[in-house]
TrEMBL record:
Catalyzed reactions per annotation: sulfate + ATP + H(+) = adenosine 5'-phosphosulfate + diphosphate; adenosine 5'-phosphosulfate + ATP = 3'-phosphoadenylyl sulfate + ADP + H(+)
Highest taxon listed in the record's lineage: Bacteria
EC class of the enzyme, as a word: transferase
Example GO BP: hydrogen sulfide biosynthetic process
Function according to Swiss-Prot or TrEMBL: Catalyzes the synthesis of activated sulfate.
Domain ATP-sulfurylase PUA-like: 11-161
InterPro entries membership: APS, APS_kinase_dom, ATP-Sase_PUA-like_dom, P-loop_NTPase, PUA-like_sf, Rossmann-like_a/b/a_fold, Sulf_AdTrans/APS_kinase, Sulfurylase_cat_dom
Segments forming domain Sulphate adenylyltransferase catalytic: 172-384
GO molecular function: adenylylsulfate kinase activity; ATP binding; sulfate adenylyltransferase (ATP) activity
Pathways per UniProt: Sulfur metabolism; hydrogen sulfide biosynthesis; sulfite from sulfate: step 2/3
Name of this chain's protein: Adenylyl-sulfate kinase
Domain APS kinase as annotated: residue spans: 392-544
EC number(s) given by UniProt: 2.7.1.25
Gene name in the database record: cysC
Length: 570
């Protein structure tokens, strides 16, 4: 009997241990690039074979083929560009033919890359072709334009060592470790369930059915690299998965963690996930409704159709080498006290369902989550991670022109919140932060962005640890405010207050004489005069302080905080 293809080892990019030691000595003198969080995830899957057949970061020819045709230059199917994006300053030092050391954020050398290509990509074209729209409401497009470096480097990689993970080590398996395990257990068919959310009873039922239909063993393979901003953190999710694992038959089910940086790329992402799972020894893959969808676009519509991912996957199924298993939308039928596929239910029965939004509301407000929906063990973990909102930390982020009244209202709000008590309150005022955190920075766009991100970082730590942060910078740029929101919402609520006092009124007040100096050209790049202020489109609250006193303005913010459930006014 021939060996099953999902049991055979696949090529890795690691060099032999003796070569790694020698290469590490030489690499100490090479130009070094400190990998970003996304690049670390990509490099790990390049080195361990998870991204096979890739031999390194894409060359320009491979990149062009992937972006335009979903194919590498040699014609093989690959839907997602995997690039080493770097800063202009670093790119200026590197020419094709150079070897560079790739380091983790602690400075440990993980790999050596031989740079063969260097180019400046057309990021708008990449966004259109890969993600379907050049729309920054898509997290990957926003990342492309506002986080990724402007220059791409391509070339093969020699792996020296895998990144170190200190969490859930027994659950982290390379593709070849899984293949060896499947061979040892005799698992000829393996159906994979991909998830970036906690598992509830409906997921359990659909995975049972998928494994039964495919007559396969089941691997729950959640993503623990980068997912969508706002997702439940992977520590909480893995504790939830481990709590649910007891509900599955031990002999036919396994749980393994995938350190993938998702792009939320819908149809292309589904094909990509299929190829990655083939490398990890899967034979079947469950593709869900709106698989890896990023939510709504700037016009408030879904980026992708609900079954676009399944259609593209099915079209390339033979090349992917993994069979598609339809994700059944499971709902609870009250009369029969069980989950059933929504499209198989007759009229006249009572169907119960709780959406993700409704689940978050119940967690936020401390309401009951019924046992028919989820397992008590999972709910317990989620409640530990998401206490009721009135017990969570949060950030109030004032933004507006100089002289709009931000700092004054922020100070009044701080006093009112301290009077209420219950949580520590910290005011991160623009001038104070500049003195203590950012004294070396100037007022160029780049330096102002760095300053706002520092404020955001400090606020996110305060928020994560249950405190209240009040920030009052000008923060004129939409992209920077969005980056700060994403940072903070990982640990609590973010309340944006646009102090929308008109420019004429701000200039009339001009307590510091800054507008006068800006009008005379003595201050360059002054917001509202020689530099733009990008108004927030959907702040939680908009205030115009022209005709209201400070006490009234601060009280409006308190009322908004109460409405959001973050405080309880007595």
């Amino acid at each position: 009997m021939t060996e099953n293809s999902n049991h055979l080892p696949i090529p890795e990019l690691f060099v032999a241990p003796q070569s790694a030691a020698a290469l590490k000595d030489v690499a100490g003198d090479m130009p070094s690039w400190d990998l970003t969080e996304r690049q670390l995830c990509d490099l790990e899957l390049l080195m361990n074979g998870g991204f096979s057949p890739l031999k390194g970061f894409l060359t320009q020819a491979d990149y062009d083929g992937v972006v335009n045709e979903m194919r590498l230059a040699d014609g093989r199917l690959w839907p997602m560009p995997i690039n080493l994006d770097v800063s202009q300053a670093f790119a200026d030092r590197i020419e094709p033919g150079t070897d560079i050391a790739l380091r983790d954020q602690e400075g440990v050398i993980l790999a050596v890359m031989s740079v063969t290509d260097k180019w400046v990509p057309n990021k708008s074209h990449e966004a259109e072709k890969v993600f379907g729209a050049d729309d920054v409401a898509h997290p990957a497009v926003n990342y492309l334009h506002h986080t990724a470096g402007p220059v791409y480097l391509g070339g093969p990689v020699k792996g020296l060592q895998a990144p170190t993970h200190y969490d859930f080590r027994a659950r982290r398996n390379s593709p070849n470790e899984l293949r060896a395990m499947f061979k040892k257990l005799g698992w000829r068919k393996v159906v994979v369930f991909q998830t970036r959310n906690p598992l509830h009873r409906a997921h359990q039922e659909l995975t049972f059915r998928a494994a039964r239909e495919a007559q396969a063993n089941l691997m729950i393979h959640p993503v623990v690299g980068m997912t969508k901003p706002g997702d439940v953190d992977h520590f909480t999710r893995v504790r939830c998965y481990e709590a649910v694992l007891d509900k599955y038959p031990q002999a036919t089910t396994t749980l393994s963690l995938l350190n993938l940086a998702m792009r939320m790329g819908g149809p292309r992402e589904a094909v990509w996930h299929g190829l990655i799972r083939r490398n990890h020894g899967a034979t079947h893959f469950i593709v869900g409704r709106d698989h890896a969808g990023p939510g709504k676009n700037s016009a408030g519509e879904d980026f992708y159709g609900p079954y676009d991912a399944q259609e593209l996957f099915r079209k390339h199924e033979d090349e992917i080498g993994v069979k598609l298993v339809d994700f059944k939308h499971m709902v609870y039928v009250q009369e029969r006290a069980q989950y059933e596929p929504a499209d198989e239910i007759e009229d006249g029965v009572t169907v119960l369902n709780i959406s993700g939004t409704e689940l978050r509301r119940r967690l936020r407000e401390g309401l009951e989550i019924p046992e028919w929906f989820s397992f008590p063990e999972v709910v317990r973990e989620l409640r530990r991670n998401s206490p009721p909102r009135a017990q969570q930390g949060f950030t109030v982020f004032f933004t507006g022109l100089s002289g709009s009244g931000k700092s004054t209202v922020a100070n009044a709000l701080m006093v009112k919140l301290m009077e209420m008590g219950g949580r520590p309150v910290t005011l991160l005022d623009g001038d104070v932060v500049r003195k203590h955190l950012s004294s070396e920075l100037g007022f160029s766009k780049e330096h102002r962005d760095i300053n706002i991100k520092r404020i955001g970082y400090v606020a996110s730590e305060i928020t994560k640890n249950g405190g209240i942060a009040i920030c009052a910078p000008i923060a004129p740029y939409t992209a920077t405010r969005r980056a700060v929101r994403e940072m903070i919402e990982a640990g609590g609520a973010f309340v944006e207050v646009h102090v929308a006092t008109p420019l004429e009124e701000c200039e009339r007040r001009d307590r510091k004489g800054l507008y006068k100096l800006a009008r005379e050209g003595k201050i360059k790049e002054f917001t509202g005069i020689s530099d733009p202020y990008e108004e927030p489109q959907a702040p939680e609250l908009r205030l115009d302080t022209t005709n209201i006193d400070v006490d009234n303005a601060a009280h409006q913010v308190l009322l908004k905080l109460e409405q959001l459930g973050l405080i309880g006014l007595k």
